[in-house]
Design brief:
Strand content: 15-25%
CATH superfamily of the largest domain: NAD(P)-binding Rossmann-like Domain
Strand order of the largest sheet: 3-4-5
CATH topology of the largest domain: Rossmann fold
Helix content: 25-40%
Structural class: alpha/beta
Radius of gyration: 22 Å
Distance between the termini: 44 Å
Shape: elongated
Length: 173
């Protein structure tokens, strides 16, 4: 439900669906619409106009059968993009094979992010671009201040291209 709240706070129109009324009630004020229904019931989904959404996220983590049936149902009724949560690689493969357009594994993704943060704490953010290439935000070492990129020789020494420099307010150089 956190993703639904973050999407809504970012301006996306969000319809949250769960079969547990207490969960629906807890999110009702944070999203555009919150509905209590069984997501494996095609008629119930259609009654909410789900076939008109741009994307659907199947966040069911504990009931793999329900996640599988919901994913299939959403694709059958014409949802163009279905992102399904998988708690294992095998479950992710199954969900992909039955039509999920994308697989989310929050536990794995969090572990990868924390591994990176622990092993390379100087890297503030990193985005993988292609095999062997990434875009990273790194705080400059104090010894870099007051020098030009040419003087630093970053490309030669580190095999890194600088694509942007962000200066904090009040700093010079």
């Amino acid at each position: 439900m956190r993703l639904a709240c973050q999407l809504s706070a970012s301006g996306a129109q969000v319809v949250a669906i769960d079969r547990r009324q207490a969960l629906v009630d807890s999110i009702r004020d944070s999203v555009d619409r919150a509905v209590c229904l069984d997501s494996t019931d095609e008629a119930a989904l259609l009654s909410q106009g789900i076939e008109k959404v741009d994307a659907a996220i199947v966040g069911i983590g504990t009931d793999f059968e329900a996640a599988t049936l919901t994913t299939v149902m959403l694709k059958q009724i014409g949802v163009p993009r279905v992102i399904a949560r998988a708690t294992s690689t095998v479950r992710g493969q199954v969900l992909s094979r039955i039509g999920a357009d994308d697989i989310a594994n929050p536990e794995r993704e969090s572990a990868e992010k924390w591994c990176q943060r622990l092993l390379a704490p100087a890297i503030m953010e990193s985005i993988a671009l292609a095999e062997g290439y990434s875009l990273a935000q790194i705080a400059a070492a104090g010894s870099f201040f007051g020098k030009t990129l040419k003087e630093l020789g970053i490309l030669t020494k580190y095999k890194v291209n600088v694509i942007a420099i962000r200066r904090e307010t009040g700093q010079t150089g």
